[in-house]
Specification:
Layout (H helix, E strand, L loop, with lengths): L7 E2 L3 E4 L5 H16 L4 E3 L9 H10 L3 E6 L7 H17 L3 E2 L2 E2 L1 H6 L2 H10 L4 E2 L6 H4 L1 H11 L3 H4 L7 E2 L7 H27 L11 E8 L3 H10 L3 E10 L2 E9 L9 E7 L1 H13 L2 E10 L6 E9 L11 H7 L1
Parallel strand pairs: 1-8, 2-3, 2-4, 4-5, 4-6, 6-7
Antiparallel strand pairs: 9-11, 10-11, 12-14, 13-14
Helix pairs in contact: 2-3, 3-9
Amino acid sequence: MSHVAHEACGVDVFLCFNPQSNQCSSVATIIKQRCSKREIIYQTSDNIDFTKNWYESIPVQILRSKIFIPIIDEQWYSSFWCSWMLLFALEHQNRYSLPLIMPVILPSYGERASEVLIAQLTKNYKATIMLSDHEPIEQSLEAFFKLIELAIHTPEWLLQGLKSKRYVDNERPLTYDELSFLNEMRHKEIVLMRDMSLQQERKLPIAKTVLHNQHVALSISYDQLPSFLLSAIYENYHITWFDVVTIDRRHYFTFIWNDNHLFQNRTSVMFYNLNPAQFHELTLKMNRYQFDLMHFDVYRHSNENMLRYICLYIRQDLTKSLHKLRTAVITKRL
């Protein structure tokens, strides 16, 4: 029996898309609205809480989901994080048959993609939906919604309001199998980064020198911080330095980042608003994942007398010697 036929369940649908794409966001909004009406529990790739260990929590939600929906446009394959999420879904499906992968392909991608690639997608994923400019999105997705509802199998007594909403236990502790799966996937992440780096490099003109443009984002307020970091992730910005200043008890953040779109086999992960204990524990865990703490700064939380940390971790590059901040440094600075 489906796990969603019980009152307690994990995530029914995981929506994966690039939130920087207006088209993808519009399609995601329609799907989310329909899921809400049918009491279908969903999680989205743009709902990242940078105050928690999202690098671990997002894969957990993917492998606990029943349906994984990648919303694909022309920018999909240039985003490491979109491919990263799809990698977890594919590997878990191959091993445990779940989640079901049901791609939605936007017209902008379908027009530019080769017929071979489109044929491969529709062959591998029978529920693939090709949207068209000649048909309203809601109408194109109608058959898609029916497939979702059949796969999820929401009990009628729940839809009729005869009982309270299901308890969502998707935040339950990791099982042994889930932990083993996540640990095995860390190596495949490195392979994915290497392959994507090579693909990006092949697109560059051979005779032309690559310019690594550096940009500065000044005085980003605390309230704007989540949207800025979300943009940086999906646009593949490489944040290399940041600073926090406090003026009239308000925090402002300055970032230096590169937009060279070359992964160079490395990935950066950022967190903020961590208390000292969270900061220390997270750094130990990220070190085990082969991430180095490259930079951090401290500010005081406005509502309490406690220090908060913002920190940047970067995947280790075994070919280069870098200045690494490890837990011994943190202990001295707490």
